[in-house]
Amino acid sequence: LDLDTAKQELEEFIPHVRNISDSSIRKMAGRDLMRFKQFKKQGIAVKFGRFSQKENNQIRKNVEEFLSITGIDSAEKLLFTSRYPEDKETINRLKSEHLFCEKLSKDIPRPWRLIYYRARKMFDPNNYKGRYTKEEKEKLKKYHALHGNDWKKISEMMSRSNLSVAMKYSEIKSAINYGPWSKEETQKLMHAVEEVIRKRMETEDANSLSSLEKSKRDLLIDREKLYQKLPWTEIEAKVGTRYWRQCKQRWTTVLTNKMTKGQQLYRGTKGLQAKISLIKRLYEMKVEDANEVNWEELSNTIGDVPKTYVQAKFYKMKVCCVPLWQNKTFSEIIDYLFEKKLPELEEKL
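The structure assignment produced for this chain is given below.
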């Protein structure tokens, strides 16, 4: 396919495809377009966002099958071939001969690149090493002073994953305030979020809206843009005194207060009713994994709040009310809440 045709055909499955680089579009046209069309014939939509447990299991199955076909020793060798320079040529030849791209993405309706990144995260032995020691934090600061944001190089020196070292450095690079948020900090956060949202909207609207429409658009921000996929490390840098995760949590609190006009949704009678509604709706959904839940829909069930607020409340309820919840599947947790906790809450109400 020529580039324009590829963009046009991919747009049906990936609405934001015209914001993707030309080289990435060419790769997607080769790796994904035929797969997406096959999924469409089966009535299956292309997915984005967090991977479900079912998808994770399919990735494991696909990797294990590929290892058994090719005789490659381990998933680490398959997915991190550059760590094994002596075997690199053989592994790359086997990948090519046995159609690695096709086999890895089998039965998973997502762009191949996202499946590959997810597989690397799942099978990277450097990704699950627990808390950083004081010595590791000092090493990380030293390596960053030498190599800047070359996280690939630093991750190899630290024997940690790229994502892990980048996120940890973000946390420790400066004196972080862990106390209550001041009024000035909250104002900085609100200005930072406004700035990144406006910048994003201006980019999106540059070629598509007239000046009159642009002035009206300020009043019509989709509410999802207020909390989904915000660049938190950029916002962290603008706030200056808080770690990115703190910024994200504080912004959820600010949004919730504004959307509910300061009402305490999870206190007293309203709190009981919200918990009851949440348990009932989760039970009715009959999903097997938390990643398959439509949290946006649930947020409307208990009030006009961000979906992250609802996810946080569900997590707290799960931890407080379900014994040994870590050993239970998502559906078992929901069944327990419905059968054991729901009658208690209804009686209390």
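Interim note for the steering committee: The two ends are 62 Å apart (CA to CA). The chain has 19 helices and no strands.
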